[in-house]
């Protein structure tokens, strides 16, 4: 029985060996250090994980903002001390060189500020890195030891780590992770939280197609139960008050699941409840 269960777990947990050999074999063919590490990241898009530098970005944005404020004050002083009112009312005739210089500096500073603000905003909206992917990179670095520790410290800033590759359905991803946790519970070696073989010539990646298909099946089954379960139960119950209670409980459960596993907004939750 244990041997059968082990075969089932291995079938679900790992990509086919040929895929592992092809993808990771490419990475291992590169020299140790950054060449091999970057090749490893390229084999699995969710491993494209980088630090966002929230505090540094906020500080730079504040400094750029203050620079514009200082230039704005200088422009206001020049306007207040302008002796020729014609220059203020007709820009084509403006001969005040100080004002022209400040305006050019303001244009450059504002463009720089807007560009950085938009770039920082995009970074803030990136998806947070999956904890399991971060752990996988930690395990690889510790297992190979071919990178300087200080240069991989970025992985310790979990709150600022983002994944550049867009992930699939967040609900499905969480469900797949739960299934993996269940399947690897009996296969976890001591000191290795995810059952990854850390030997340089043997690296395994979880979340194969079998896990993906199993996750989709579980998701479809859960949705079907949520949609049809209350209908079946209400047909078996005669009391009107009990039926209302069942409907209310099912709606609350449905909304709780949507709120927990997705990023639904308040309006979307309201529409889901109404339909």
From TrEMBL:
InterPro entries: DUF6594. Residues 34-275 form the DUF6594 domain. The chain crosses the membrane at residues 218-238, 244-262. Pfam families: DUF6594 (PF20237). The keyword Transmembrane helix applies. Coiled coil: none annotated. Keywords: Membrane, Transmembrane, Transmembrane helix. This is DUF6594 domain-containing protein. The lineage of its organism: Eukaryota, Fungi, Dikarya, Ascomycota, Pezizomycotina.
């Amino acid at each position: 029985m244990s041997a059968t269960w082990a075969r089932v777990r291995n079938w679900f947990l790992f990509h086919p060996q040929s895929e592992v050999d092809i993808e990771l074999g490419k990475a291992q063919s590169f020299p140790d250090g950054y060449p091999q590490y970057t090749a490893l990241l390229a084999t699995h898009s969710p491993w494209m994980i980088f630090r966002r530098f929230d505090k540094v970005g906020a500080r730079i944005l504040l400094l750029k903002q203050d620079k514009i404020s200082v230039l704005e004050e200088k422009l206001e002083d020049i306007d207040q001390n302008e002796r020729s009112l014609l220059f203020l009312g007709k820009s084509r005739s403006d001969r005040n060189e100080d004002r022209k210089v400040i305006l050019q500096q303001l244009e450059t500073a504002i463009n720089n500020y807007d560009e950085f603000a938009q770039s920082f905003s995009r970074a803030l909206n990136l998806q947070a890195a999956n904890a399991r992917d971060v752990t996988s990179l930690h395990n690889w670095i510790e297992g190979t030891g071919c990178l300087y520790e200080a240069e991989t410290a970025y992985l310790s800033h979990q709150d600022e780590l983002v994944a550049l590759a867009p992930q699939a359905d967040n609900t499905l991803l969480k469900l797949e992770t739960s299934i993996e946790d269940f399947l690897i519970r009996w296969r976890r070696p001591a000191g290795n939280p995810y059952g990854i073989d850390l030997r340089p010539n043997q690296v395994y990646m979880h979340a194969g197609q079998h896990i993906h298909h199993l996750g989709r099946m579980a998701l479809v089954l859960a949705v079907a139960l949520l949609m049809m379960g209350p209908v079946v139960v209400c047909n078996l119950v005669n009391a009107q008050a009990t039926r209302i209670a069942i409907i209310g409980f099912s709606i609350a459960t449905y909304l709780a699941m949507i709120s927990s596993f997705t990023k639904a907004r308040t309006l979307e939750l309201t529409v889901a409840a109404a339909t």
